[in-house]
Amino acid sequence: MKISYAWLRDYLQLDIPADELAEKIERTAVEVDGVIRPSEGLKKVVVGHVLECVEHPDSDHLHICQVDVGEEEPIQIVCGAPNVAAGEMVIVALPNSWIGGHTKIKRSKMRGVVSNGMLCALDELGFDEKLVPKEVADGIFILPADATPGEPVFSYLGMDDEIIDMSVTPNRGDMLSMNGTAHELAAIYDQTPKMPTVALTEDANDLADDALTVTVEADEHDVPTYKMRLIKNVTIKPSPLWLQIRIWNAGMRPINNVVDATNYILMQYGQPLHAFDYDKLSAGHVNVRLAKAGEKLTTLDDEERDLLPTDLVICSDDQPICLAGTMGGLATEVTNETTTIALESAVFDAVRVRKTAHNHGLHSEASMRYERGIDHSATQTALDAAAAMIAELGDGTVATGTVAGREETIAPVVVDITLSRINHVLGTDLTMDTVADIFRRLDFPTTINEDTLTVTIPARRWDIHIPADLIEEVARLYGYDNLPSTLPTGQPTIGKLNETQQLIRDTRKLMESAGLTQAISYSLTTPAKAQAFELHASEVTKLDFPMSSERSALRLNLISGLLDDLAYNNARKEQDVALYETGRVFFSQPEQVRPHEVEHLAGAITGSMVPAEWGIAAQPIDFYQIKGIVAGYLKSLALADPITYVASADHPEMHPGRTADIYVGDRLVGFVGQVHPNTTKAYKIRETYVFELDLAALIALPKERQQYQPISKFPSITRDVAMLINDDITNAQVVDLITDKGGAHLRSVKLFDVYNGKHVPAGKKSLAYTLTYQDQNATLVDDDVTAAFDKVLKALTTEFDAEIR
Amino acid sequence: MSLQDRLTELRDQGLADIKSADVLNKVNQIKVDLLGKKGPITEVLRGMRDLTPEERPKVGAYANEIRDHLQNAIDHRRSELEEAAVNAQLAAEKLDVTLPGRTVPQGQPHVITQIITELEDLFIGMGYEIEDGDEVEEDYYNFERLNLPKDHPARDMQDTFYITKEVLLRTQTSADQPRALESHDFSKGPLKVLTPGRVYRRDTDDATHSHQFHQIEGLVVDKHITMADLKGTLTLVANTLFGDQFDVRLRPSYFPFTEPSVEADVTCFNCNGKGCAVCKQTGWIEVLGAGMVHPRVLEMSGIDPEVYGGFAFGLGPDRFAMLKYGVDDIRNFYLNDVRFLSQFYKKG
């Protein structure tokens, strides 16, 4: 809502700077987007009187004008506008002046003729093209004949005004009018606003009832009030300049006297009005009802619209002629030939108008106000004011009486509140006098009985109906700055992270100390990416109306998002990237309303975690490095059940020979491995290793009870074994066998070499392990260890056909 | 030559040899040669049996004196040579200590996580619990239970991703308020929760809009919670994130689930309130929305608004990070360019 400071001064005595007023409004009522000064940046733009205007000898459209700009001699200006003529008062941009768009005007020559400036149209002064009246859009603007040559032009165009651009919240629909804003400022500055009075003269010989009938078929909830007046013998013409100024400074385009009058009253009272060409109504009758399926209406913007059964429409001869509260129809539009106006002032249900505006994509000044509610007590006053104004501007007469299809009785809202409640909620110590004075300033009639205030809310403040609303009024007018600043007291509470939250935090720290940086990727992705790298099969959860297919499905894995991140980095020549992410994945549950949200952890690494440095070559990431990161992390969780890695070729997006499923006991908790070369190609990324873990499952799984183990006082003995063994026998198999056959004192089995290069026959590999023996209670005897070790060797030979070296 | 003279001669010769020995081996050899069982001093001592009983102790004492003298000289020379050897080794091992150290791979938390963690810790210290909340919510909880019935004009403020007619991606972490309210046992004390998390809006991504961003919701409900408590809490948040040299101002706003509703601004830290491009010449930066919990919201959760009341606030870590670090494009937070992520190397 754009509020003209000049217009406000009709109501209130305000002499503070506009910026200060704006700040006050912002701190007390609604947000202010800024203060607009239409003349800001413009210089040396003055009134000129065209004394002489002749055609340019070398041009078919230019004119050479001698213009009086209040100086001793007239100045010569060449002008191309078709409507320039001698005798006119015009807008002159003098040499070295600044006009709209930071443009400087200089003395110049046009086809050989000197031009000492420029005659201007409104848009050249910075007017938004949408606000320029159409009849003056194609030429220069002609000022009133009584303008004084040489004076700055701004005061003649309302450009010396300051306009406060308020961003009105949905609850403060009352401030979408000059009257409402004036009431608000009156409360803030403790003034009594000088509200406009309506002087309506009715033509006693002409009764509106005789020519017009109105019926309302729609129910009372949808249309509580519907009234009309008739204005006859109206001449349609442009509005006087003062009105045009008010209209364009309010951000609307002046159209003609009738439309401008309805818009002016709309701005003043916040009451939407609609003017019908009476002669186009059938039998002087209108009816308000819901539209029927299949009905059509061509609206003022020349669009034929298919009406919906939820649309409220005004009908004549049972044909829709207007979308109630939203936009009029083309067939009954006021044109230059119109002489009789049927003027509507009504109340339509907010939700109805909202749906209609939404469904037809028609958001107008009227619909915006109906959606936020209007002052139900102002329908008659606004109708009378508009009728009087149209009659005056169009030299017409107003028929006697209002034709009401329906009129509601307005019951006053009365709210009781206690002083102690106000202080209890605000944390203040206000006195009854202070609070009563705030309600007096708001002009809310109040009676006081001991601690209780009984407050009558005027209809113009329909946002107030419960005690909390009154507390807000007190708080904002008392001033939020004046509230004390404290912290909640009362029973103390223990604040801490729960186990899950703590574990997720620990997880992040562990990942970071392992060299991975946290990423936060998008949860919405393509259905294909959402379902890739799946750990557990699930339907994908899709959006109903996505904005793009790229963001249309909820992820079921975190790896896809991380690969997108890697691709972004690779495309920017960042080759070494190690990222992890913790976050939700969404498993669809056929029987459930909502998907199951599960916390996952994933990592993706490409390039080298330690890049090449002086003296050291880069160490490209490989399977065993990322597995080491995962294993180190899993160890920190102290899971009670054993962790196993099982080769898996079942993930289509993963390398079939370089991927391991990870089990805790017999529960699948994730996988680790190299991304399939086809997948990396599709993502346009380099060789990449990833892991994905079901973090929620890991958090929930039983943990080992931490318990101190005494450290043996007796020395340990080690034995090394190296063997040639078939390639398809895994490390896990060998270690299991050694552990199984190792005897009571075998403490650990550590792989220290894998070799399958030179001197190793094809189909074989060389593995080497260190076995450590220790007795908790005694010094081991060498012979006992040798006996145990020999058992292991024998088992390896017989079970795996190992050749011990 | 008397035995004394012989000993003196051996001493002088020995000292000269020791002094000239330049490696440890030579010193050791001198020791064996001079003081060993087959050495000249032993030999001299053996010749003592030819002496008179009066002379014997004198010569014996003198021989011992010389032996000690030589022994000391050898020890001294040995330590001199050992020290020189160590010094030579150290000199040879000298490094250029200004060469870079070896990199230990080290990741870091996302800047948004850093802000969330900082606030979580602040509020945990004040007795708040952290709630996680679901990202996919029912329309009922995200809107209706927050006093935003269908067709409420305030729904226009939040374009929503729907999955079905009744299920959506939460547009605000406030969606967790009704669930927190209805599950809390007030007989065990006040409700104090902080809900950080992802939220989603049907917005086209550009420098200032993201279809995915973060919010942190705070909610306190007890028998006597005041607007002054809200003001104090918000001031603390602003001071924690931006420093305590800045002012906080509250101004009226509108959220259907709070009444009164306010927005909080802090003094623009870029210009100290003078007015600049960051604050659009206002001197203030809007940082969060808040208010006193609307009685309807309490009622719908089965809580008597005559007895209980509270405050709620919501703030955006993305916006905070943009303001605090001058990040000019919100998309940076979700593209995960390592050159961006690595700039925020503080540990979370």
UniProtKB/TrEMBL annotation, chain B:
<keyword id="KW-0067">ATP-binding</keyword>
<dbReference type="InterPro" id="IPR004188">
    <property type="entry name" value="Phe-tRNA_ligase_II_N"/>
</dbReference>
<keyword id="KW-0030">Aminoacyl-tRNA synthetase</keyword>
<protein>
    <recommendedName>
        <fullName>Phenylalanine--tRNA ligase alpha subunit</fullName>
        <ecNumber>6.1.1.20</ecNumber>
    </recommendedName>
</protein>
<keyword id="KW-0460">Magnesium</keyword>
<feature type="binding site">
    <location>
        <position position="259"/>
    </location>
    <ligand>
        <name>Mg(2+)</name>
    </ligand>
</feature>
<dbReference type="InterPro" id="IPR010978">
    <property type="entry name" value="tRNA-bd_arm"/>
</dbReference>
<keyword id="KW-0436">Ligase</keyword>
<dbReference type="GO" id="GO:0140096">
    <property type="term" value="F:catalytic activity, acting on a protein"/>
</dbReference>
<dbReference type="GO" id="GO:0006432">
    <property type="term" value="P:phenylalanyl-tRNA aminoacylation"/>
</dbReference>
<dbReference type="Pfam" id="PF01409">
    <property type="entry name" value="tRNA-synt_2d"/>
</dbReference>
<feature type="domain" description="Aminoacyl-transfer RNA synthetases class-II family profile">
    <location>
        <begin position="190"/>
        <end position="323"/>
    </location>
</feature>
<dbReference type="GO" id="GO:0016740">
    <property type="term" value="F:transferase activity"/>
</dbReference>
<dbReference type="GO" id="GO:0000049">
    <property type="term" value="F:tRNA binding"/>
</dbReference>
<dbReference type="InterPro" id="IPR002319">
    <property type="entry name" value="Phenylalanyl-tRNA_Synthase"/>
</dbReference>
<comment type="subunit">
    <text>Tetramer of two alpha and two beta subunits.</text>
</comment>
<dbReference type="GO" id="GO:0005524">
    <property type="term" value="F:ATP binding"/>
</dbReference>
<dbReference type="InterPro" id="IPR004529">
    <property type="entry name" value="Phe-tRNA-synth_IIc_asu"/>
</dbReference>
<keyword id="KW-0648">Protein biosynthesis</keyword>
<comment type="similarity">
    <text>Belongs to the class-II aminoacyl-tRNA synthetase family. Phe-tRNA synthetase alpha subunit type 1 subfamily.</text>
</comment>
<dbReference type="GO" id="GO:0005737">
    <property type="term" value="C:cytoplasm"/>
</dbReference>
<keyword id="KW-0963">Cytoplasm</keyword>
<dbReference type="GO" id="GO:0000287">
    <property type="term" value="F:magnesium ion binding"/>
</dbReference>
<dbReference type="InterPro" id="IPR006195">
    <property type="entry name" value="aa-tRNA-synth_II"/>
</dbReference>
<keyword id="KW-0547">Nucleotide-binding</keyword>
<dbReference type="Pfam" id="PF02912">
    <property type="entry name" value="Phe_tRNA-synt_N"/>
</dbReference>
<keyword id="KW-0479">Metal-binding</keyword>
<dbReference type="InterPro" id="IPR022911">
    <property type="entry name" value="Phe_tRNA_ligase_alpha1_bac"/>
</dbReference>
<dbReference type="InterPro" id="IPR045864">
    <property type="entry name" value="aa-tRNA-synth_II/BPL/LPL"/>
</dbReference>
<dbReference type="GO" id="GO:0004826">
    <property type="term" value="F:phenylalanine-tRNA ligase activity"/>
</dbReference>
